[in-house]
Amino acid sequence: MHDAFEAAQLELTRWKNREERLVGSVKEVEEERRRLEEELVKVEQQVSYYGSLTRDMKREFGTRGLPGLLSSFRKP
Fold first, then answer.
1. pTM of the model
2. Residue 54 placed within a domain
């Protein structure tokens, strides 16, 4: 009976250790997900900014293409 009790205690300890590792892994995944979501927000803001910048530049310089854009920079 004593051996069965020790075996059960060892098994319980093993499962508690496994649970701790899994909880730690889940926390790491949640932190990574939060970091990636924050990064995605930044990227979406940049896409929006550069999209509007492109539209504004097309309005200002017309759709003459690269040669027209380059010549507009040379004007005093």
1. 0.58
2. yes
